[in-house]
Amino acid sequence: MEFATFADRAAAIEAEPADLEIVDLVRAVLEDADADLEIVARFVQGRVFPAWRSRTLDIGPNSCYEAIARAAGTNVGSDDVEDRLAEVGEIGEVAASYEFGGQQGLGAFTAGNDDSGSAGGAGDELTVREVFETLSELAAAEGSGSQDRKTDLLFGLFNRCSSEEARYLARLVLSEMRIGVGEGAVRDAISEAFDVPVEGVERALQVSNDYGEVARVARDEGLDGLDAMELEVGRPVQAMLAQAGTVTDALEEWEEAAVEWKYDGARIQLHHRPAESDETAPETGVFSRNMEDVTDALPEVVEYADETLEEPVILDGEVVAIDDDGAPLPFQEVLKRFRRKHDVEKVREDVTVRPVFFDCLHAGGDDLLEEPLTTRHDRLRAVLSDSDGPEVNAANIEGLSLLWRTDDPEEIESIDAEALEGGHEGIMLKNPESTYSPGRRGKHWRKRKPDVETLDCVVTGAEWGEGRRATFLGTFELSVRAGDDSEERRSSGSAVNSQTLETVGKVATGITDEKLEELTELLEPYIASEDGQEVDLEPEVVFEVGYEEIQTSPTYSSGYALRFPRFQAVRHDKDPEGADSLERLERLREA
Ligand code: ATP
């Protein structure tokens, strides 16, 4: 296809406001693309390479401005391009404002005499294939002088462009195509053009992340061809994402939840193929959430894979920074390592990272996307443990995220508390039956982070524990001040007593034994009376608690109950007068 034809079609699409019409125009351009279908299916979305390839053109805007200026003529400098850009705000418009062609000055040789064999000079028609091949050559240029080489190659292309072609070439090069073609439009257009069901296209896109290949297979091999497309070790897929969610919703929707710690690091997808013989080396690729290749920045992950994995796999997980004792460090630390291109070994001495995997998309030749989460996790466990060895405790498998299945909110609370105590971000709640949906932010994965809003409540009662916790106070009764927040009350110094407090709930679970011991020591001196296990406390100590929701409830004197209250901290700096009021609770409920 001539690039001029592509530019015309792109202009028509850009001018079309209606989504359905856009799909129809994309369908038509795909049908007419013939041998260039793969390229056109990507170009129309503003991509030169498939989404899974980390490859970029690696050319800065300034080189592009310079190439445009040179192709536009001897009187134009890149300053002029920048000035026009500042005025109109869009590079396509700027490129289209010049007249190109026939610049035979310095650099013109690249268009005609380069090794790629592309025909040069103004006059002959540029094709989409030539644009693709020249941009591929440009992307591959490395080392000293490569930026000049890239600019020369780009100049050679602009030099052969009409204004309209230049508009779309400039946008393509700077990843600013923006003609209103989203991924859904190309998917639907492929389905319509080649008469294959949209679901088949969608699945093939999920496993391949290449609109070009999917379009070609749909046209040449139909649905059977699409169905035969599989994950490939070494070719990243999009990560499944999470929604924010609550324990209440998760347990209402699913019979039980799979609960995992939420690690505070960066998402990674590991692709590994073990060495096939003593002569060959294992192949490992580590990719970011955006499918960018970050292998070189994370040698620990590569070493882990080489030591642990015995079959070809694709694993999903998180890379976390750890201290000398293996305890997780905050997210900021991992950022010092992630995507680093230089001095990796030097920075590695300061910040150590380790991978934790929570999903397995492919193992030993089997694609597992359609399998339920628990099956995938079992497979993950087998992959990461020595499968020939004795049954191992999952907690001892290095690099494996633990997964609990439960329908008990209290158990979830304690997993959450343990996670927070261990320096993790919170918990993830997952539907144990769910399949893996690449790129989807569905409701099957829910992230529960520490609550944003917290309440400072007075502890007005407690219960002695049972069994191993018999010497600890637990199940703490929480109250808020019944009065208003007026300055008058505060300054009048009226003390808070049990008459001026209203109960709002009990926080029971989610506190470790160590913490219970500490809280018991703190609260024991304030025991006012005891009745069996139940204890009344003088209102002296303030707890900061998180919660999922505030509900109306006849159970507590305030008329409200905190749903899933979570102990966060003792507010040593606050006395009961400084605790939150019923008024604030009502305001939060309305918010
Ligand atoms: P967003 O995905 O909303 O853009 P984000 O990148 O900050 O935001 P969150 O949505 O807060 O991430 O949480 C999802 C992320 O949590 C995952 O992408 C992953 O990196 C991380 N994570 C940590 N532990 C797990 C786990 N056990 N299961 C799934 N994801 C986990």
Mind explaining what this structure looks like?
This protein is an alpha+beta fold and 591 residues long. The protein is elongated. It contains 22 helices and 19 strands. Strand 6 (352-363) and strand 7 (366-367) form a beta hairpin. Bound molecules: adenosine-5'-triphosphate (ATP). Adenosine-5'-triphosphate binds next to strand 1 and strand 2.
What is the gist of this entry?
The chain has 591 residues and is of the alpha+beta class.
The ligands found in this model are: adenosine-5'-triphosphate
Helix content: 25-40%
**Count of separate DSSP helical elements:** 22
Query: From the 3D coordinates, which CATH architecture of the largest domain would you assign?
Result: 2-Layer Sandwich
What's the alpha carbon Rg, rounded to whole Å? 31 Å
Q: What average pLDDT do the residues reach?
A: 90
Task: Please state roughly what percent of the residues sit in beta strands, choosing from under 5%, 5-15%, 15-25%, 25-35%, 35-45% or over 45%.
Answer: 15-25%
Number of domains: 3
The fourth-level CATH homologous superfamily of the largest domain is DNA ligase/mRNA capping enzyme
Number of strands: 19
Low-confidence blocks of residues: 105-122, 487-493
Distance between the termini: 57 Å
Shape call: elongated
Question: CATH topology of the largest domain, anyone?
Answer: D-amino Acid Aminotransferase, Chain A, domain 1
Main pleated-sheet profile? 7 strands, antiparallel
By helix and strand content, what is the structural category? alpha+beta
